[in-house]
Amino acid sequence: MLRLTDVSKIYEGKSQVKALTGVSFAIESGEMVAVMGPSGSGKSTLLNLMGGLDVPTAGSVEVAGRDLAKEDEESRSLFRRTHVSYIFQAYHLMPTLTAAQNVALPLHIAGVPRKEVDERVDRALQEVGLGARDRHLPDELSGGERQRVAIARALVTGAALLLADEPTGNLDTVRGAEILALLRSIHERGSATIVMVTHDPSAASACDRRLEIRDGRLVGDNRN
Amino acid sequence: MRFLLSTLSLSYATRNKAKTFLTLLGVVVGVATFSAIRGAQSTLVGGIRSTVDRMAGKAQLQIAMEGGVPEELTETIRELPGIRSQSPVIEQVVVPERGELGSILVLGVDLLGDREMRDYSFEGDDADLDDPLLFLAQPDSVAVARPLAKRAGLKIGDPLVLKTSRGLRTVKVRGLMTPKGFAEAFGGNLIVMDVFAAQDLFARGRRFDRVEVRLADGTTLEEGTRTIEKAVGPAYRVETPDRRGAQLEKLITNFVAGFNISSGFALGIGTFLIFNSFAVAVNRRRRDIGTLRSLGATPRQVMLLFLVEAAVLGLVGGVLGLLAGASMSQSFLKLMEQTSEQVFGIINASEAHIDGTLAVQSVLLGLFASLVGAWEPSRAASRIPPTEAFAKGSFQAKRGPLSKPRVIGGLALFGAAIAFTFRPPFGGNPLILMVMGLCVASVAMLASPASQALIDRVAPFAARISPVAGRLAADSLMANPRRTSGTVIATTISIGFVLGLGGYMGSTKASMLRWMHDVLTSDLYVRASANFTNPDSRFPASFREELAALSGVRSVESYRGMRITVDGEPAMLGTIEVPLMMKRVKHDFLQGNDESMLRGLSERGEVGVSDNFHRLHRAGVGDKVTIATPSGTVSFPIAAVFRDYTNDRGTIFMDRSVFLRYWKDDRVDTYDVNLISGADIGKVRDEIRVLVGGRMPALISTKREFVSEIGKAVDAFYSLVRITVFLALGVAFLGIVTSLLISVAERTREIGILKALGAVRAQIARSVALEGVALAVVGYVLSLPIGLLIAYFMETTVAEVFAGWRMPHQTPWGLLTELAIALPLVSALAAFVPARPAARTKVTEAIEYE
Ligand SMILES: Nc1ncnc2c1ncn2[C@@H]1O[C@H](COP(=O)(O)OP(=O)(O)OP(=O)(O)O)[C@@H](O)[C@H]1O
Ligand SMILES: [Mg+2]
Q1: Which CATH entry fits the domain spanning A2-223: 3.90.1150.10, 3.40.50.150, 3.40.50.300, 3.30.470.30?
Q2: Of A96, B103, B280, B806, which is the most buried if we count CB atoms within 10 A?
Q3: A140 lines ligand 1 (CB under 6 A)
Q4: Nearest listed ligand to the Cα of residue A88
Q5: Sequence-separated (6 or more) residues with CB below 8 Å from residue A140
Q6: For B17-67, what is each residue's pLDDT tens digit?
Q7: What is the pTM of this model?
Q8: ipTM above 0.90, yes or no
């Protein structure tokens, strides 16, 4: 499903930052993987590379048989539409759109016909348990509800790879646990591959596998 | 895409109404100014053609001369072969006592003979008009065009009071005309009367304005023209109505073209406001754009999204601008008509209208300006990496290091502007566009580094004055260099224009005033007409004796001006008793001196020319000026060149005796009356009033009044420059307000945190005001070099190219001081708009904002 080979990422700026150095691993289809490590260790960078949001300085990132490092911006965008979905710590919902409109966004970007959109949005919202709040603006929802909307937005495209960057980071323990359970159930029901960055050991233990990053290097790879 | 637009963009627009409105306003102002000016221009130009055409009727040739055609000329023409008929005409625009009726064109014709030329379509079974002799028997008879009669509620037998140069005069309606063909001219605001009655009513003496001719069958236009030209001499213009229309049209086209600068400026500003708003919106929506990208939107989709937003704004703004323009164009037209009547003597009255082509053009221009303005920001948006969405905290564009090539490039452009100002490689409109373009480009390149440098210096200082408000303002300016420099560019360019054009007007006015002070040294000025450039009545020469006989009067000079053509270019001829004038006036000579001028003009029949004539015609002492006079073409040697601001096309002076010899026209425009020292000006003035006593129109002014009246005429001439100045000032403030609104919206979170830390409303409001003041001050400082350069450029290069004058440069201290006080003050006031919501920000909401 996903293979990283000797991946390095260097941010050029006033001072060079080596965010990742020689990282290699593979993830099989249908796995649920946790990525752990201290702040600044390169977790988000890793996730960005896996989703083709960014390209590595060296090495290759193969997703579904394509080397994203070699593709241009445009084709990586098109690839993302159908293959990858994101869930962010800070939700990143469009503040001016309702819950349903936010969920519909990726489908509209991909040019899915309108009739089909409504149907799929409804289903996705039902799945995250938000069927009744589809007309609310993000401002009118709680943090947990917002994250559910974000998850529905990630599910709606039916992408095979789901990348989540600290999806519970902004939530209290109870809401965090709920979101986690939701992700877990999504994982169990479907065949989605989930990669989730987290600081929370209990969240990590809910996953099949745990990758440890420190100072941009892969230092641990354990199966639960 | 449709969804993205209809939901994302639309919801953004409705949630940010104030900003969207301001962005829209940029396009609206630009398109409105453009369409209003263009509409007025084309209406005026078109109106002149059709007025001339309609008025001419079946006349094939018109014979005219500056100052009027003497009655005797009709005798000469009568004897010529190939003439079927001729008809004398007097044309005068008057304002009725009932001002609400608007200007009326009075046409004086020979009603007995004129039906050959024009079809009057007299109406009704009125006996008076069945027998023109009855109509003519009463000199106050007029026939009124039906539309005017209807508007004024005039019936046969009603009186109509007209304001003439001789005071109020009453005429009687004794006929009505159907508005078709000729009676439609001048918008139907037309009166016809007997030509001899008109001569008297409008103090034309024994002259007509022109004589119209119809040729006998078989005589061609060329033959007819040649025959008449040979008989009347070179001082007369013999031309077809069509050619006359074309010439007037050309004159007026040049004049109205001046307005293009204003409309171009307005459009440019509209584009810039769009650019600014979009640059800021893109920056503000970075995170949303990043999110879209992470959801699979391609760079092209993002760019398209913003461009379509711009297109919609452009179209909406274009349509609104067109509507606003349509309602404004009548005022522009009135302004242009007034000037064209006063300066060129070209009459017109039309309802301004914007035709279909112009309407489409205007809306498309709004669209185009909007797209051009949004292009670069949209491209920047498409380049935002999707990882942006992941960035924690509020993202701000990092300020780039001072880019050396950019600074050097900007300085080089400014250097080029300076070089072109001092050594213009070519002339005319291209040069103006070039220098203005260079100035704008150099500001665009330098404003960002320069404003950074300035704000870096000012910020710590502001923070020290007011630890909360000052620091907050400084932070906000430094944190978002993109917004700051955008605003600074807009304010700098606008204030630069204000300073440039305002400074130019100031210098011009000051030079003219100084010159008038030197030249207008008589005690009293007695004028026959209120119009300087195109007088509508003149004094008989004999009046001079009567004035000179008054007690207290030392001497009287008779000034007579006349518009002439030299080498195909219009110029002014000024005539006076030179020896008398030289005794009181100190000229500033470029060539020759008092001695050569006095001798040359009064003894040898030579002429003196103004400095601008000298430059425009490249003629000086030793050269000759060739003028077509009623007595034939004469070449006059130039005796002296001196500074003179009488006319912007150049002035030639000659002694009155020489003028009388060649022109045989002794009427006088203005008597310059010099008193013996100690005489009571007020008393002499009263005596002159008694002397005039309703016999003829006369305006009697003291030196000071005369100077101020001319000053007003000069001001009227510069009215369009003033419009541009106001536009520019408006833009500067619009730019600052937009920027502050956005700044406040961007800092909602920051403001909330500050309030959580105990900052009070007043402190927040003060910080917004301070930010506005800082922007105004930076824009002002940066505009100084540009503004002064533009002023200098206008005073020397532009003035020389167009009028041949080089105005001595004068630093516009008054304007500089006014702006230095007004700009920060008004910016602080303008900041009130965004400061209120800022101060009201709720702590909880603000913190939620992320
Ligand atoms: N766009 C960027 N430009 C420069 N440096 C960056 C950029 N993004 C990340 N970095 C640096 O790369 C390193 C890794 O960052 P990354 O965001 O991947 O860490 P992280 O493990 O996700 O941290 P956290 O747990 O705090 O989210 C950090 O030192 C960070 O400062
Ligand atoms: Mg991270």
Answers
A1: 3.40.50.300
A2: B280
A3: no
A4: 2
A5: none
A6: 777 887 788 888 889 888 988 888 888 888 887 778 778 888 899 999 888
A7: 0.73
A8: no
